[in-house]
Amino acid sequence: MKFETLIIGAGAAGMMCAANAGPGVLIIDHAKAPGEKIRISGGGRCNFTNANTSPLNFISQNKHFCKSALRRYTQWDFIDLMDQHQIAWHEKTLGQLFCDDTAKDVIAMLRIEMAKAGAQLWLQTAIEDIRHDGSKFTVKLVRDGQETTVSVHNLVVACGGKSIPKMGATGLGYQIAAQFGLPVITPRPGLVPLTFSDERFKPLAGVATPAKVRANGTAFEEAILFTHRGLSGPAVLQASSYWQEGETISVNLIPSGTLLENLQSQRSTDGRKALSTVLGQYLPSRLVDHLKDNLFLSGNLADQSDLKLTALCESLADWTLTPAGSEGYRTAEVTLGGVDTDALSSRTMGANAVPGLYFIGECVDVTGWLGGYNFQWAWSSGWAAGQAISGK
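User: That's the sequence. What structure does it adopt?
Assistant: Structure tokens below.
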């Protein structure tokens, strides 16, 4: 069977590419339905982009690579597409945009756009073999137990990374890159909870508090969540993408910076209260109990000198921890690393050494922050490849 373009992966990037790549497109996926990560994202409402998207919100060995695609297809372009399809949306905190109703509306929109472009979608389809003779790709597929060989001029790899294997995530994109001689930056889990081998936080499971978490010089101020296995919550997930195994993280439990002033002021009014009781006004009581011994939280507030209160606040502002690891791809929202951007064109997403071969979305070494940035990279990179293939 002959098509102009074969897209491997019917996720966000693959469907966006299929809607823009011109005629003769076949998009395949091994799953039973397209856009499964879209469907489960944002608690089922899909955090589809972020109003504050800029290249600064992305991690890559080449920080400039993402600029072209993000500049030419912006968050406002995708918002306009949503508005055209009359999909209602709203903004939460920090520029995060969600569907009012359901993430399924985004999937339906992309399927409509693919249908308008004439793209065919084959689900529950596996790849057996890929060959390239210098001018076209020959791909052997298995669908409904039957082998089918397709011949295409363009092959787009949009099959994501390794995160959430229970949804079928594999390293197929990296295998294809290696087959064609493209280097791959070692993948690792990103936006992932951090774990501690001694179960120290098990008694705190379920406790959440505002904090600023720093890893490798980059800090994020949002909530943290204590779990049976360690630390989670937005601030920890964000910092995890910068953390390397064996390194420490710093947790600032008093990010507002006003605790010392407040405690000094309360000495005259609440001096007879236990220091731990007063701290419970600013931090969860279970967390205060957990820290009590290490921070010597004994005595009444009136007994604490300025020197002692300053030392206490400094400790709370720089709680240094060494995670044993992370929860891995099982719960990671994204995969860091991927196809080396040095081997790709930032304008077309095409492989420099293999004409007609493209890599888009999560399998590329471009990873966004938490909050809709990774979906925007999917839309932008998919659109860029689609435009290049269609000749627009």
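The CA atoms of residues 3 and 104 lie 28 Å apart.
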